[in-house]
Amino acid sequence: MLSRDEALTLCETVLAHARAAGAEDAVVSVASEVAAHARFADNRVTTSGRSEDLTITVTVWVDKRRGATSGNDASAAALGQLAGEAVQIARISPVHREYVPTLGPLEYPDSRGFVDATADVDVAARAVALQDVLRTCREASVSGAGVHTTNASATAVATANGNRRYFRASEAACSITARTEDGTGSGYYAGDHFDVRQVDAAQIARQAVEKAVRSRDPKPIEPGTYPVILEAQAVADLMGFLVGALDARSADEGRSAFSAKDGKTRLGESMFDTRLSLHSDPMHAELPGIPATDEGIPAERITLIRNGVLERLTYPRFWAADRKQTPTPGPTNFIVESATPLTPLPEMIKGLARGLLISRFWYVRLVDPRTIVLTGLTRDGLWWVEDGVIQRPVRNLRFNQSVLAMLAPWNVEAIGPSVRRSPFMVPPLRVGAFTFTSISDAI
Amino acid sequence: MSPSFSRREFIASGTALAAGIVVPGWAEIFQSGPDVDAVRAEAADEALAQAAKLGASYADIRVNRYRRESIATRERQVQNVSRSASYGMGLRVLVNGAWGFAASHRVDAATARTLAGQAVAIAKANAALAARKVVLASADTVKATWTSAFTRDPFDVPIDTKLAFLMKLNETALAVPGVSFVSSQLLLVDEHKYFASSEGSRITQRLVRTYPQFTTTAADRARGDFQTRPVVDRAKLVGYEYVEDYPWLQDAEQAGHEVVEKLKAAPVTPGRYDIVVDPSQLFLCIHESVGHSTELDRALGYEANMAGTSFLKPGDAGTRRFGATIVNLVADRSQPGGLATTGYDDEGVKADKWSLVRGGMFVDWQTTRELAPLVGQQRSHGCLHSDNWASVPFPRMPNVSLQSASTEVTRDELFSGIKRGLFIEGRGVSSIDQQRYNFQFGGAVIREIRDGRLGAMVKDAAYQSRTPEFWASCDGIGGPASYRLWGTSADGKGEPGQTNAVSHGCPPARFRQVNVLNTAGSS
């Protein structure tokens, strides 16, 4: 990966070429990345590899006309050609009506989410860890499949107006699916962290194996509306659709779940359980984010939902200028938390008279953007709970459920401690009503 | 309405740009010539030789360059014109029966030696964990060059011509009263692939894809309601002639009318319906329920942690009923225009065509050189693919298609006899479980069928079924004249995730008594 000096020097070179070719404004980014993985199934490693790449992107404006190119060749000739080609594209493009001048000099804190141990993963140590995982699976007579990934990147950005920034980030993740030999039980567990040493593959394997064994021989129940407990993973599987709707422009244009009648938005409405809040914080200790938005606005802690009220929609620079708003300093991550004392998962189960315990969801898709109705299926661990005790595994179910209704004030019963499921910190939840529409035979 | 339009029309529309040079030159690596080819061959040879020296029993390398051009617009403005290029090499080695892989964006002999060292070290570390050694099916040694079929290279077409096409498309949709928004895109992909193996194969291929798309939206601001109508997913392995020959403007106008009608359409009444599914929707159903369930790596559990397994078991080929006897499904990597069409796969196996389901019986799998021996087959069907030089190649789907009836059967003939049914067109929301049993599909446009005739549009409908029952309920398939090939450009699978472009051909088909849901929610 490139150092700050190396990456910014490349940026300056491309900027100089762009200016020489006639660019009036420009932004150049140089991202170097290294990624490694080991994938296993059938109790052996199936694929494993390492790759490195470089992406140089230049966007220029000439008479407010825009052109953009990217490539991965850092040779002197290629850098000049990349900039020249962007300028040529700009010259033949129409005026870019959403042009906003690039940012000038700004101060940024260093990113906190990078460690060398993740960038330079020790292949031998990883093999030993996976050996433990596979042994755990063999001893439990389950078939283990999963993946261990490490990624690291360094990104430098320079604008013609003097903005300079450089951030590094790393991410390690491990997920494991254990399947019983008779094919009737399956369990999944996952963990991620910016420091690979914090990803405990052995513990993830034990959780997956336990879920597989406990989920053997599930029996069907009637589809319908039930109280459910969503483990944190299941909440994370749905959360992307909620945060994807927080864009102000879509809401202003009347095509978002946060659009209201007569051209208004739902800002300020108490739409969610009053204990729920959603914020973004680049300095979060467990889930640090890049301390700048993609557009370069220095990222700050921002609250999007406070005590159930939709407090903020996000404005990128153009839409902020159009609507006379300030560009939103985020989000760079999504932290869902409760304002009141937390209910750990075992307590949630004890407090459930009749309902389902859900491990995770699969193939979740947005069916109705007006109310964020999603469809998808439960997977790798679904149990019937009665009188506060897990009674038996049940067959997987397909759901059709609005996220807005799921998190509504009348529906949330209990909120647990949040855990990292990048890019989210999410809690397990118990909700009063969750709607399933059919049975799946899949294990 | 004219199916396409000329540059003159564009200039007359007032959107035209300054005339002049309109095709900026591409980077040197795309000026294919002896110098570039010689460096590439030397790096590949060096990587293979070094891998062998370090103990690899087999090695192969892909030295690939890609270029993409993307133009995005919304309403009457251009949002983005961008080009990207990527060049690099990925080496795969087999050591002590275990795989290792290493890739870099630097293509030279010194980097090739470094990659060989990295890939062999990874393979050796993993070999200790291998309960079973990888054995490859035999393959022919191939020295060949192959280029996908196209008549007009999209990278030679002036950018202003492409911009004019998209702006005219938008204008046509916006001219329909009630249309609030339209976005459109043109994505062009050019892959130059070089493959070399330690067994002596040397293959050069070029693949060109053209992908126009648009979405219309109608919003009722007073009621706070909105609907969208996307274009059918129409990426193809063809050149720019696709933009010029297909009636895109007619399609845009129709999309405008349909999205406005959809906003006013009555919600569907849930229940059991006989449904006729148009190729523009059925292709996606084939993709999810047939394409993925017949992947052998899934049946063997390789995808258990991500895409999932399959309801088909490794011993099922030749013994398990998949659907009604009229159902015949074919895998084909040589189908003209198919996104998964190729000359050779990413381990040098020639494009193949074979039956997956014949007379309703499941008869064969999708395989690679590693997978074929695991079900007792001597040869691979050629399904290995990597989406980038930096990605580890693994099993990916060929074009999988439903064969048409042997005689002509029209759409109206499929409608006849249906008292209460639905006709489903276009891409809607899709979701299917991890063993490919339970699925739910929406559509872009859904209309009632009443007493054998097409009726009013309905909204908020999705059909939901179980793969074996769905294909067993098929009792009518359109004839050869109604066969269409549609595709998807971003099919996800694997970890780390990779995307694959793949097409599916089919005529419309009729399915009896399928469960239909009303998917509208309230908050």
Automatic annotation (TrEMBL), chain A:
It comes from the Bacteria. InterPro entries: Metalloprtase-TldD/E_C, Metalloprtase-TldD/E_cen_dom, Metalloprtase-TldD/E_N, TldD/PmbA_N, TldD/PmbA_sf. Residues 223-437 form the Metalloprotease TldD/E C-terminal domain. Pfam families: PmbA_TldD_1st, PmbA_TldD_2nd, PmbA_TldD_3rd. One of its GO terms (biological process) is proteolysis. Residues 138-215 form the Metalloprotease TldD/E central domain. Signal peptide: none annotated. Residues 28-90 form the Metalloprotease TldD/E N-terminal domain. One of its GO terms (molecular function) is metallopeptidase activity. PANTHER family: CONSERVED PROTEIN, TLDD PROTEIN. Belongs to the peptidase U62 family. This is Peptidase PmbA. It comes from Luteitalea pratensis.
